[in-house]
Amino acid sequence: MVRARRIWVTAAALCVVAGASPGVAAAQGRPPSAAGASADGAAVLPPGWRLTGGGSTPRLEWRSDRPVPMGDARVEFRAGGRLLGVPRPEGDGRTFGLPLDTTRRNGLDRPQVWSGGRRLDGPTTGPAPASPGSPLKPTPLSPPPANGVDPGEPGAYRTKTGEYTLKSVRLPGFAAPVEMRAVVVAPVGAPGERPLALFLHGRHYTCYRGDDITADWPCKTGYRQVPSYRGYLRDQRLLASQGYMTVSVSADGINGQDDESAEDGGAQARSSLIRLHLARWADWARHPATAPAIVRDAPRADLSRVLLVGHSRGGEGVNRAALDSLYPPAADQDGYHGAVRWTVRGMVLIGPTVFGQNPVPDVPSMTILPGCDGDVSDLEGELYVDGTRAVSTGTALHSAVYVVGADHNFFNSEWTPGRSAAPSEDDFYDDPDHPDPVCGKRAATRLTADQQHRAGSVYVAAAARLFVAGDDRVRPLLDGSGKRAPSADPARVLSHAVGARRGGGFLPDGGVSVAGGRLCAAVDPSPAKTCLGGDAHGYSPHFAQWETDRESGRHAIALHWTRTGARTRVTARRPVSLSGAQDLALRLFVPPNSRGTQLDVTLTDTTGHRATLGRIHADGLPGSERTASYWGREFRVPLTAATRTGLDLLSVKSLELAARSSSGRAWLVDAWGWRPGTPEVRAAALPRVDLGRLTVAEGDSGTRTYHLPVRVSGHGSGQVRVHVLDPDTGHGTERLVTVHPGGHDIDVPVEVEGNTRYGPDRSYDVLVKAVHGAVVGSYRGGVTVHDDDPAPTMKVTPLAGRVAEGQSLTWRVSLSEPVDMDMGAVFGVTPPATGPELSTKDVPASWLRDISGRSPDPERPLSKVTGLYLWIDIPPGHTGTDVTLPIVKDRVAEPEESVRFRQLDDMTGKPLPDGLELAGSVMNVP
Description:
Blueprint: E1 24-26, E2 49-52, E3 59-63, E4 75-79, E5 82-85, E6 88-89, E7 95-99, H1 102-106, E8 112-115, E9 118-119, E10 158-169, E11 178-188, E12 194-200, E13 207-209, E14 212-214, E15 224-225, H2 233-241, E16 245-249, H3 252-255, H4 258-261, H5 267-286, H6 293-296, E17 301-311, H7 313-326, E18 344-350, E19 365-370, H8 383-386, E20 398-403, H9 449-468, E21 493-498, E22 503-506, E23 512-515, E24 518-521, E25 555-561, E26 567-576, E27 583-589, E28 597-605, E29 610-618, E30 633-638, H10 640-644, E31 652-659, E32 664-674, E33 687-691, E34 693-697, E35 703-707, E36 710-714, E37 718-725, E38 732-739, E39 749-753, E40 762-772, E41 775-776, E42 780-786, E43 794-800, E44 802-804, E45 808-815, E46 823-830, H11 845-852, E47 869-874, E48 880-886, E49 897-903, E50 917-923
Parallel strand pairs: 1-48, 12-16, 12-17, 17-18, 18-19, 19-20, 33-41, 34-42, 44-50
Antiparallel strand pairs: 2-3, 3-7, 4-5, 4-8, 6-7, 8-9, 10-11, 11-16, 13-14, 13-15, 20-21, 22-32, 23-26, 24-25, 25-32, 26-31, 27-30, 27-32, 28-29, 28-31, 33-36, 35-39, 37-38, 37-40, 40-42, 43-45, 45-48, 46-47, 46-49, 49-50
């Protein structure tokens, strides 16, 4: 028995179970779609699913009917609303497998495959439409007014391009070295030191040869590295023409290893790589003669003005690099150990992942959300905006720009068909028979690859101009002011933001009461509590799920009315000050494709004075059941009416929304006092929390208590929310904890009881998220208990090894001792050593179909039947099971015939040289 994967089983397997003492269990099969169904009461698995690996190494496996492209969002197995785990992909691009312990195996309940908020194993459609019949037809958005300054216009400088390759580096937890390679685009003739923009691509294939692409690292002989780092040359040239030094770094060495080596999806490794490059640029700025030619011949970089641009997992890596530059990580988790000789002024995150959901609060950011993202399709990057609220001072602007009709890949030309060196594709899969009305290739709202990349370049330049150059004239493109950059046409780009000069405000998470509406939960298994129920027609980026099935501290306000004049009142726990604000800015959304929602906005102060500020007109984004189009647009109403009527803006008690349409739905994300401007940002001195993982041996006796490794560094105190996941159910319990540097405020004890019985490893997992006055680096940790007992021996004893026709061959498979997990083996039929072989007509036709999915016709030896395997399973606490092979009485005169099933190798599926056998013979009955 070995702990290994079985990836080769292609048909139904036999699963039999013993009683308290060995009994007889007929070898009854199941249809192929239920291949993995266990005999201990677990639910029958749906088509495409199976349990493989036998009892000793149980593995839940799903195989797609089409290739699943390598992407940035993690593929996840879920069941019963909880996360089962993150499976590993196999080399065929279709198969994913997750090792299971006994508790997770028994808890399977209609398993599902999800990636980036999108289900992969079910229908491509999402939840049912919000109303009966066909959903409303998407219509393109009208263009907003042009901004006074267009950052997409090329600058005055010519550009020069070159590359550098340095010695590869070792990163913690990664077996193979990671490359230090980059492409530089520099301005020619720009005076003085120039700001630096560093780009990092996301997770993609690493190697290719012709049309063959792999995720290997290093690349095999004859394969070339996929040049993902060259995919942003268009963006780099625009910035370089405007006077920026630009560098795009390669991270294929991380992409090829992060699924196996990084619990955080590779965020810390990518941060280390970024900072290793920045350290070299700092060296070259001081000693230009040591720089590569392209850097040596270019203007010197100003490391006090750095913009980080990350795509997909590169976006999460950029966020971590900015965090690590302000609040140093633990040395044993980090690949960079030098001084921080740079200042990150801002970040651009393009379709980013956010596995940790812990954005750095005091570095300004702009997150690009592609409306047709087929990879990170839940647009979870919205959490880089929403997740910063109330965490720190709130002076950093955090913007989200929603690009209608953009997919995930086409922001990188090396991921774009017709432009890439390696094979590439449109990540939004479109069924040609049922094209998506928003994101289908011929949809009016879908952008071409060129249109999309051009828009991306423009908004990267806008972020650089605002965050690095400090040009406030481009802010209206990013902060919800409703302006557009004409150079990005025909793309329709919408924006909203938090931070900067916003103040006061009504936050659903800040303690409010609601009348005439519902304070709803972003993530909750209860349909009565969740914000988007089963009648939603798509998804919301604001409600992207984390690793838990419910979360405190993430709410919105749901409005549903059936008459004109219906009112929803939101009352703050403490009076809100809107003093000094120019407008009230509301982030609010209505159902996709809907038109004409009108809401009057009224404020009431603590003395009862009321002022109606104005009316907002809200239309839904173009959306389908496959898009995350429930996204909050920013609406502003002037506070002049409040001032005119004498409302006390220092002490506002409530916000009221009154419907001016006969029926409708809306969701309020938050509301703030707003005034123009972009203040200078200074990072607060905050404590940083990092969780670690401790692996311990189970031991043979006694009970030992271990504690979750936690490191709290930095300054001051702050609050975090700690989620402890139950290893049996996967459900979490949470608590709010105040942390202090060097303290032991987060204490999660784990009791381990030793024994001498063989069993599975057991993982006690913990998650942490910043709430207020703290930041989080390594968000996931725990205690893994390694079972250190030897596996028992297994043997086969024939009970009826030679029988007459009409009887059954029977064998007993037994263990030398009981164990704490399922144990088993898979046997494949092979020709007998001598003599004639049993044929498909010698066993019941129903049994053969159940076991292999095959017909007995035409008659052939059993060893010629594809997919005929016997899966022997012995449950925990038992020592054996009996297996029977039914034989029919065919009334045909024939010699004695034999059958042989041989134990198969876990990895290869081939018979083990010294493996067990189930062998027997059948005598003819005259």
